[in-house]
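As the next step, I needed to go through one protein, both as residues and as discrete backbone shape codes, included below for the reader:
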Amino acid sequence: MIQKIIKVGNSAAITIPKEFLQSANYKIGEEVALEINTPMRTLVVKPKSQAAKKTLTPEFKDWLDGFMEEYQPILEKLAHL
């Protein structure tokens, strides 16, 4: 889906499709948390209740997946000492 960034006063806005609002159970006027990832040029909309919850960056997740794959056997042995 392609949306256009529009000017609203001195700010910018992106319209949110009605279908997404309904499926995500958001209401007009509701406060949401925005998670900004500048290097990836992405913006994630989350419920306000999840504002303090952090997520892993894709780069860190990739590194962590590789680390776990390489060191899984050693970590399992250490866990059973």
